From TrEMBL:
<dbReference type="Pfam" id="PF01478">
    <property type="entry name" value="Peptidase_A24"/>
</dbReference>
<comment type="function">
    <text>Plays an essential role in type IV pili and type II pseudopili formation by proteolytically removing the leader sequence from substrate proteins and subsequently monomethylating the alpha-amino group of the newly exposed N-terminal phenylalanine.</text>
</comment>
<keyword id="KW-0472">Membrane</keyword>
<feature type="transmembrane region" description="Helical">
    <location>
        <begin position="6"/>
        <end position="27"/>
    </location>
</feature>
<feature type="transmembrane region" description="Helical">
    <location>
        <begin position="271"/>
        <end position="294"/>
    </location>
</feature>
<dbReference type="InterPro" id="IPR010627">
    <property type="entry name" value="Prepilin_pept_A24_N"/>
</dbReference>
<dbReference type="InterPro" id="IPR000045">
    <property type="entry name" value="Prepilin_IV_endopep_pep"/>
</dbReference>
<keyword id="KW-1133">Transmembrane helix</keyword>
<protein>
    <recommendedName>
        <fullName>Prepilin leader peptidase/N-methyltransferase</fullName>
        <ecNumber>2.1.1.-</ecNumber>
        <ecNumber>3.4.23.43</ecNumber>
    </recommendedName>
</protein>
<dbReference type="InterPro" id="IPR050882">
    <property type="entry name" value="Prepilin_peptidase/N-MTase"/>
</dbReference>
<dbReference type="Pfam" id="PF06750">
    <property type="entry name" value="A24_N_bact"/>
</dbReference>
<keyword id="KW-0808">Transferase</keyword>
<feature type="transmembrane region" description="Helical">
    <location>
        <begin position="169"/>
        <end position="186"/>
    </location>
</feature>
<keyword id="KW-0997">Cell inner membrane</keyword>
<feature type="domain" description="Prepilin peptidase A24 N-terminal">
    <location>
        <begin position="14"/>
        <end position="136"/>
    </location>
</feature>
<feature type="transmembrane region" description="Helical">
    <location>
        <begin position="142"/>
        <end position="160"/>
    </location>
</feature>
<keyword id="KW-0812">Transmembrane</keyword>
Length: 298
């Protein structure tokens, strides 16, 4: 494989684009699954401790949002279907990128438009993993960086849709980063531990300082954990670069959105995608950027 790098890169792209198709499912269904779990827990609490509320509101109304989806609903079941006509999507229509193009971006049954975000996420996932294949080659670094990238794509999509970075995705990444760096895959064990701690506490401190001064919450706890993930994976040395890059990209995109959509300053904008982008850039080119910056100071 090392003698045919383009073959490895091509296979990586095709495989990753296929995984990207599944990540579209994760982005859509995972928040729904979480909301159903939250509502089930709330309903159980109300039924046990506040039966008078259940009696007044009615059990059917309490379960309304749960009943909007099939009883068995997870990342596998039920199969993919058109949200309008409910027609099952054929396996060949689920081919990454090509399936959407073959359908002309419309449902094969009712001709309802299918969002272009599906092939976009598949294409982006394929390109990201292909870049990793080019940069790392067939190594352990490539394998673990691919796992990190897949989860980052899912987290980005969920945060854009729901303003949510689920602990079920961020915390396993955090622990995985610490575990793999016991062997120094990307950083020394000490740098990884300090990085995870510093990554969390840095944004946590900013959050509380902003809240004390303004009385408002400027970001969510998921952002702290995501930065801690990159500290655990890359070490504390890359945190200033990631914070700088994410803030810069976030400011540019945020200002652009405010101008284009006439959004006010109080409109929430997810910060997780910018941390993910900055962290992924640092994973590939972080050391080169730091060396360049230090070189300009000398």
């Amino acid at each position: 494989m090392s003698q045919s790098p383009w073959l490895f890169i091509s296979i990586s792209f095709i495989f990753a684009a296929t995984i990207g198709s599944f990540l579209n499912v994760v982005i859509h269904r995972f928040p729904v699954m979480m909301k159903r779990e939250w509502q089930s827990e709330c309903n159980y609490y109300l039924a046990e401790y506040h039966p008078d509320i259940v009696k007044e509101v009615g059990e059917k109304r309490l379960n309304k949002s749960i009943d909007d989806f099939p009883k068995k609903y997870n990342l596998v079941v039920p199969g993919s279907a058109c949200p309008k006509c409910k027609a099952d999507i054929k396996p060949w229509h689920n081919l990454p990128i090509l399936g959407w193009l073959a359908l002309g971006g419309k449902c094969a049954n009712c001709k309802t438009s299918i969002s272009a975000r599906y092939p976009v996420f598949e294409l982006v996932t394929g390109l990201l993993i292909a870049t990793l294949a080019w940069h790392f080659g067939p190594t352990w670094q490539f394998l673990f960086a691919s796992i990190l990238t897949f989860v980052l794509v899912a987290l980005t999509g969920i945060d854009l849709d729901e303003m949510l970075l689920p602990d079920q995705l961020t915390l396993p990444l955090l622990w995985l980063g610490l575990i793999i760096n016991l062997k120094g895959i990307y950083a020394s064990p000490a740098d990884a531990i300090i990085g995870a701690t510093a990554g969390y506490l840095s944004l946590w401190s900013v959050f509380w300082l902003f809240k004390i001064v303004t009385g408002k919450e400027g970001m969510g706890y998921g952002d702290f954990k995501l930065l801690a993930v990159f500290g655990a994976w890359l070490g504390w040395q890359f945190l200033p670069l990631i914070i700088l890059l994410s803030s810069l990209v976030g400011a540019i995109v945020g200002i652009s959105m405010m101008l284009a959509k006439n959004l006010g300053r109080d409109n929430p904008i997810p910060f997780g995608p910018y941390i993910a982008i900055a962290g992924w850039i640092a994973l590939i080119w972080g050391q080169d950027i730091i060396n360049w910056y230090l070189g300009t100071l000398i």
